[in-house]
Amino acid sequence: MKKIIVDGYNAIHKIPEMSNELDKSLSAARTALAMHMASWRGKGMYSRALIAFDGQDSVMKGSSQVKLCGIDCVFARTREKADNLIIRMVRDAKDASKITVVSDDNYVRNNSRAHGAEVKSVAFLRSPTGKQNNPSGAANKNIATERAQAITDEYEEYLRAKGKI
Questions:
Q1: For 2-132, which CATH class?
Q2: For the purposes of burial, counting CB atoms within 10 Å of the CB of 86, is it exposed (0-12), middle (13-18) or buried (19 or more)?
Q3: How many Cβ atoms sit within 10 Å of the Cβ of residue 89?
Q4: Which of 31, 122, 147, 156 is the most exposed place for a label (fewest CB within 10 A)?
Q5: Rounded CA gap, 165 and 161, in Å?
Q6: What does DSSP assign to residue 143?
């Protein structure tokens, strides 16, 4: 079975239900993400789920790993970012091909892929089954908002010219 590693704060900021929890507290957002992972139906594909967070000694009081809602949560050391922690876990794994990294951060994605891990967008976690609706991955491309709108406008213009809308 495979292991899934989630870039915690990246996922929190990308999933609206989680980012809304930030209004309460960072702890509430972390707990919401852990609860989501604990009930996520796609996790049946994985023997272990782990969420990596940037850490601060004052937050963790010396502990770098805790369980939230039954999910392992690892906090990077104060001077280390979770990005580097995730990459190190992938690099040091016996078989990185059995690891799926979930992040929309290109640094994490590219380095994890280079070390042999499978990489998924945070959108992967939003699907109850863990399957992305767009197998080509086109929806996961990072396009500037202005450029995306220009593409949409062009397409609408094309459809109007063809009498489709």
A1: alpha beta
A2: buried
A3: 20
A4: 147
A5: 9
A6: -
Strand partners, 53: 75
Question: Which tens digit of pLDDT belongs to each residue from 29-84?
Answer: 999 999 999 888 666 788 889 999 987 655 555 548 888 888 999 998 877 889 99
DSSP states of 2-63: EEEEEEHHHHHHHSHHHHGGGGT-HHHHHHHHHHHHHH-GGGGGEEEEEEEE---HHHHTT-
Q: Which two tokens stand for residue 27?
A: 């702890």
d(CA 54, CA 9): 8
Cβ atoms of residues 75 and 50 within 8 Å: no
Q: Give the model's pLDDT for residue 45.
A: 83
Q: Do the beta carbons of residue 2 and residue 45 sit within 8 Å?
A: yes
**Tokens of residue 141, six digits:** 């491309």
Whole-number pLDDT of residue 35? 92
Structure-block tokens of residue 116: 């042999």
